[in-house]
Amino acid sequence: MDTAFRPYRSVLYIPGSKDRALDKARGLACDAIIFDLEDAVTPDAKGAARETLKAALEHDGYGERAKIIRINGLDTDWGADDVAVLKNAKADAMLLPKVDGVADVEALNKLMGAQMDIWCMIETPLGVLNALEIAAHPRVKGFVAGTNDLAKELNCRNREDRLPMMFALQQMLLAARAHGVICLDGVYNQYLDEEGLAAECEQGRDLGFDGKTLIHPAQVAGANTAFAPSEEEVDLAKRQIEAHEEIERTGQGVAVVDGKIVENLHVETAKKTLAKAEAIARMG
After folding, report:
1. What confidence tens digit (pLDDT) does each residue in 77-89 have?
2. 250-256 LR contacts (CB < 8 Å, sep 24+)
3. Each residue of 202-249: pLDDT tens digit?
4. Which residues, 6 or more positions from 144, have their beta carbon under 8 angstroms from its beta carbon?
5. What is the mean pLDDT of residues 11-20?
6. Contact yes or no for 90/55 (Cβ under 8 A)
7. Chain mean pLDDT for the chain
8. pLDDT score at 248
9. What is the torsion angle, in degrees rounded to the nearest 10, for the CA atoms of residue 146, residue 29, residue 159 and residue 203?
10. Are 120 and 144 in contact (CB under 8 A)?
11. What interhelical angle do 102-111 and 79-86 show, nearest 10?
12. How far apart are CA 57 and CA 225, in angstroms?
């Protein structure tokens, strides 16, 4: 798949220690998987988990899904060993938790080979404030909003509109967009609340996130729907491109669709919309 248009609508956390969950993930409709060695694995199981995950990735079977390994922090007893065992695994990226600044990224960079990209959990006040310099590192290709940890650090209240966290979310997005980095929204904790998930996905999509991280397979369908181009958006994109191409052929007038002028920037957005829809279709 052309990674420039790879979809990240639904990105599901899977415990790296559980064979059954690792196997079940092969048949889920999520766009990407975060294989978690951090929060989802107890300290006494850390060593075995990385070997279990390595074997699962060697077996593969995850198709077109992006495969991301969340390691333990390098300031823990397990992080460096996670990198040593998995740096050549069949995965697309390593996700580093609690990134405060570019020095954290560089520490991981020195331990890794050249095979994988680096993704960063932005979940601390320093991480938010330093997001621009973190995104500028050439190995960094993805941000994940760690909204639970960030809420704890900010001591903010949990509101449905996420207003207390809005600056932090937008700061991450601005930094990511400035440097062409994928940016994923944080998790929605009430995994059986479909309406609440739909509302938060819609908010995340409207803000500009590429997709949402998920804690349960039941959330996949909702995220896929929210972050995919709608039929109306695809139809509009096609008509905008057609109208603009017609004006280019004739050299007369301006392109107008639904009473609105179509400029080059609209055509660029339309082409991205169609490319994303095509990539989603290839995912099956």
Report:
1. 999 999 999 999 9
2. none
3. 999 999 999 999 999 999 999 999 999 999 999 999 999 998 988 888
4. 11, 34, 95, 119, 120, 121, 122, 184, 186, 213
5. 96
6. no
7. 95
8. 87
9. 100
10. yes
11. 50
12. 28
Dihedral sign of CA atoms 83, 86, 91, 97 in order:
negative
Q: Percentage of the chain with pLDDT > 90?
A: 88
**In sequence order, what E strands does 131-233 have?**
140-145, 182-185, 211-214
Check whether 73 has a pLDDT greater than 80: yes
DSSP string over 36-77: ESSTTS-GGGHHHHHHHHHHHHHH---TTSEEEEEPPPTTSS
How far, in Å, CA of 107 to CA of 110, rounded?
5
Copy the structure tokens of residue 179: 């440097």
Quickly count: other Cβ atoms within 10 Å of residue 91's Cβ: 23
pLDDT, residue 2, reads 55
Measured between alpha carbons, how far is 187 from 88 in angstroms, rounded to an integer?
28
Q: Would the pLDDT of 177 be above 90?
A: yes
Residue 114: its pLDDT value, please? 84
Note whether 89 and 114 are within 8 A (CB): no
Q: Is the dihedral of CA 251, 253, 254, 259 positive or negative?
A: negative
Q: Tell me which amino acid residue 116 is.
A: M
- The residue among 1, 12, 3, 33 whose CA lies nearest residue 282 is 1
Q: Which two tokens stand for residue 203?
A: 């908010």
